[in-house]
Write a structure and sequence with these properties.
By secondary structure, this protein is an all-alpha fold. Helix content is about 75%, strand content about 0%. The protein has helices at about 5-10, 15-35, 40-50, 50-55, 60-75, 90-105, 110-120, 125-155, 160-180, 190-205. α5 packs parallel to α8 (about 125-155). The chain is elongated. It starts with a helix and ends with a helix. Mean pLDDT is about 85; it is low at about 1-10.
Length: about 210
């Protein structure tokens, strides 16, 4: 066996990205429709039109698959690149951009469907809620806090408690929009929502203006 052939065998077959996407979308739909506990790997395989072996080749168990679904949805709405913006972009513009993308994440149809499932299953399947918090919520907060530290080091902000400030800003952004989405009410008028986001960014900047 040649060295090239041996290396090829070690690498194995290339991942089928279409199957990756099909598995994540199928699992996400099933988790939202039936809840975490009721979904089996067999059901995901059937809906995604793949074998169960194909799923297990990618995810060790249902918990790993659920975590991947959460990560997938989070990255689709708030890309990691959002937290590495152009260094010449104004702090205000970045805050507004992050707020808009964050709201898109937490008030979107899929997000609200997952939210309802997690609340309904919080007693029966607490691990699902823990995974959501660790994968989506905590990751997002940490990225934002890291950006705040960077901007403080650059002298464009003065944030003494980046983690706390990140929670307060993101919580303020959610505000009425998330409450209305949670209750199934009509969304806020886009112009009023834009004003809310811009005012939130301005208030944050005043509170953390460089000394």
């Amino acid at each position: 066996m040649t060295l090239a052939e041996h290396a090829s065998m070690r690498r194995g077959r290339p991942r089928d990205l279409a199957k990756d996407e099909a598995i994540l979308l199928a699992a996400g739909d099933l988790f939202m429709e039936h809840g975490y506990e009721a979904v089996s790997m067999d059901a995901v395989a059937q809906k995604a039109a793949v074998s169960k072996a194909t799923i297990y080749a990618r995810y060790a168990d249902k918990e790993a698959l659920f975590r991947a679904v959460l990560t997938h949805e989070c990255e689709r709405a708030v890309m990691p690149s959002s937290f590495m913006p152009d260094p010449d972009q104004s702090v205000r513009d970045v805050l507004i951009m992050l707020a808009e993308r964050f709201l898109g994440l937490v008030t979107g149809e899929k997000a609200m469907g997952m939210h309802r499932v997690l609340v309904a299953e919080s007693v029966r399947a607490p691990r699902a809620s823990e995974l959501f918090y660790e994968t989506a919520v905590e990751t997002l907060k940490c990225r934002f806090a890291s950006w705040l530290r960077t901007e403080t080091a650059r002298g464009r902000l003065d944030v003494r408690d980046p983690d706390g400030a990140a929670w307060r800003y993101l919580g303020g952004v959610k505000g009425e929009a998330h409450m209305r989405a949670s209750l199934g009410l009509s969304p806020i008028d886009p112009e009023r929502l834009r004003t809310h986001i811009e005012n939130g960014a301005d208030e944050f900047m005043r509170a953390h203006a460089p000394r």
